[in-house]
Amino acid sequence: MSSQSLDSFFTPKAVAFAGSIKPGKIGYEIIKSMKEGKYQGGIYPINPADGEVMGYKVYTSVSELPKDADLVVISLPHHAILETIAQCGRKGIYAAVVISSGFSEVGNHEAERDLVEEASKWGIRIVGPNCAGLMNPWYNHFPSIEVRALPGYTAFVTQSGALGGATLAMAEELGFGFSKFISYGNRCDVGDIELLSYLADDPQTRVIVLYIEGIDKGREFLRSAHAASKKKPVVAIKSGRTQAGTRATSSHTGTLAGVDQIYDAAFQKAGIIRVEGIEEMFDLCQAFSHCPLPNGNRVAIVTNSGGPGILAADKAEQLGLDVAEPPLSLKNKLKPHLSPHASLKNPIDLTVESGYDEYRIALDCVLSEYDSAIVINVATPYLDSTGIARGIIDAAKKHQKPIINNFMAGRIVKEAIQLLDEVNMVNLATGERGAFVLSKLTERIKIQERIQFASID
Amino acid sequence: MHRLIEKAKSENRHLLEPEVLSLLDSYGIQIPPHKVVHNEKEALEAAKSLGWPVVMKIVSPDIIHKTEVEGVILNVQNEKQVSDAFSRLSSLEGTDKRIEGIIIYPFQKAEVEISVGMVRDSQFGPVITFGLGGIWIEVFHDIAYAIAPLSIEEAQNMLNSIQAHEILKDFRKRKSVDRKSLSELLVRISQMAVKEVAIQEMDLNPIFPMEKGYFIADGRVIL
Q1: Which residues sit opposite A178 in a β-bridge?
Q2: Phi/psi at A427 (nearest 5 deg)?
Q3: Which residues of B touch A251 (CB under 8 A)?
Q4: Cβ neighbours of residue B170 under 8 Å, at least 6 residues apart?
Q5: Can you list the positions of beta strands (E) in A241-354?
Q6: Does B147 contact A269 at a Cβ distance shorter than 8 Å?
Q7: What percent of chain A is predicted at pLDDT more than 90?
Q8: Is A340 part of a structural domain of the chain?
Q9: Which of A302, B39, B67, B129 keeps 20 to 30 A from A215, CA to CA?
Q10: A266 interfacial to chain B (CB closer than 8 Å)
Q11: Beta bridge partners of A18
Q12: Per residue in B47-100, pLDDT tens?
């Protein structure tokens, strides 16, 4: 099946909803989310009780629906779904999001097989069952029970609906947006393999994130992920539970090779960047969405306070970045513009009395020399952090290099961080997290080189 | 399927050591000189032609881990020791421990021991491993993993990604190992693993890296 066939899921002309239309029920809540999300196409609730819901005409059967419906969202009890699928097939609706549970996740494999069989009879593609739905925020399309995502550049594909929902709720707090969100639940049809190739060509998606608990069709997954990571970064959150020792083995190799190491090897082959959890994912995806990749691993740390600068430098070195001291020429260039107490090693400590000019000039100078920068502002309430932010923004304009800011902390830097946000500059809560992100941006360059040589049959 | 694998499968056993060597050889992998003997006279002739000292090991379809049953005798230095070794190894035979011969190699000593292995994963297919060899692999678990097939670049990357990778380079007056031939070994093993789907697991351990080439001192292939 070509990736083209997934378009109806993400950019449907009109959406039908087969499920309860009572307030508080899933069917009703999804329609409400579509309405509140300002979906522009037709919204067609289907229910034996006709009339209206939220101002939308209710259709008593699929056959009555207007012709433009090309996606159906099903939240019916599992035993009532097959008939609806058949009706959709007759009506020419070839995409179905099945939210309903009661399938293989509770051992009801027969019901899931029947669902797949009926759908394939009509050529209907399924996301789900037992899923949290999907979203295309750029299209105001929210057929999901979860918190509506803001538009952004990260596509998030999750095997766990609950984790997906929690991630969306956290993202809302952070103001972090998504290009697409897909919870595929039991993955009876559409899964990672197809989504990877779809999202690789999706213009709004700059980075693809997978939350993976387990993979089926491993070799196909590798091919698809490999092809996708040639086009854009692919990040995976994989829980690290190891099943080493559960396999019957006769060789030492077999005994030593844990599932986790094998996943690492698979990700390496496909060029997938593995992260430990949601927090790292958010940090990294912000950077992949908004920062250019560095040309090398030399990082400058510009700060107004010693401690946080050193923590960031230690972390950067530990992660393989080069926190080299500036050459004499650069020191000489910086010296006349900075406080006599400024430290011109790396971290470059501008000292506490620095503002717009010092930050702008220092960052401009170091970016001519280094591949990337971490810029730290440990604010004191009496200092104007917005001036520092403007200094960074002005310096950054002249360079196509990744900069991670770390404005600390809380209320007194809120306004300054907002200024950074407005121009899509990344600000993270600590410089160490900035170091992590830069190490991964650097890794991405190596991955791009490496996967050209990966041999995949 | 390779005929030796087919034969072993039909007899419901894993590959015997001489078969492992012959399989590796057919995939262009360097194998050490060796002889399989069935009596003391053959053993003496083999030892003399291979050159002293030698290693003698049992060839048995029933015993996977030969060292654990004392089925390996290293550094056999003369004719008397060959006779002693031959009778000690022959005495290991039992009703549930068939012995189909004794395999004799030249005794090779090396400072660095490495290992190459394969395990077939139900999802990702053959996974190739590279690490320190001998007992060290089990002590340090310093192993690089990669999914087959491997390109030469991926194989080189494996050599560089073990913790102890410095040991493969010029190190304290010792010359660097032959990294090119080790990379080629990994590539060929990976190609064999992709092609021979009946192989479930494989250990080549220890392998002695040489200034030129390598010496595979032991190997097992599990079907």
Answers
A1: A154
A2: -125, 130
A3: 117, 119, 201-203, 220, 222
A4: B176
A5: 273-275, 299-303, 348-349
A6: yes
A7: 87
A8: yes
A9: B129
A10: yes
A11: A46, A74
A12: 999 999 999 999 998 887 888 888 999 999 999 999 999 999 988 888 788 889
Q: Which of residues 28-87 of B touch A (CB under 8 A)?
A: 64
Q: What pLDDT score was predicted for residue A2?
A: 43
pLDDT at B170 over 80: no
Say how many domains are in chain A: 3
- A328 and A276 in a single domain? The answer is no
Q: Which residues from A are below 8 Å from B118, CB to CB?
A: 253
A178: Cα within 13 Å, side-chain hemisphere: 32
Residue-level length of chain B: 223
CATH number at residue A22: 3.40.50.720
Q: How far away is chain A from the Cα of B41, in angstroms, using its nearest Cα? A: 34
Q: What is the mean pLDDT of chain A?
A: 93
- What is the CATH code for B5-14+110-222? 3.30.470.20
CA distance A264 to chain B (A): 8
pLDDT category at A250 given cuts 50, 70, 90 is low
Tokens of B149: 């097939």
Q: Which CATH number does the domain B33-106 belong to among 2.120.10.70, 2.40.10.220, 3.40.50.720, 3.30.1490.20?
A: 3.30.1490.20
**Residues in Cβ contact with A321 at an 8 Å cutoff, skipping those fewer than 6 apart:** A297, A298, A299, A435, A438, A439, A442
A229: closest CA among A4, A454, A35, A73? A454
Q: How many CA atoms lie within 13 A of A312 on its CB side?
A: 35
Is the pLDDT at A257 greater than 90, yes or no? Answer: no
Q: How far apart are CA A20 and CA B39, in angstroms?
A: 84
Q: Which chain B residue has its CA at the smallest distance from A449's CA?
A: B153
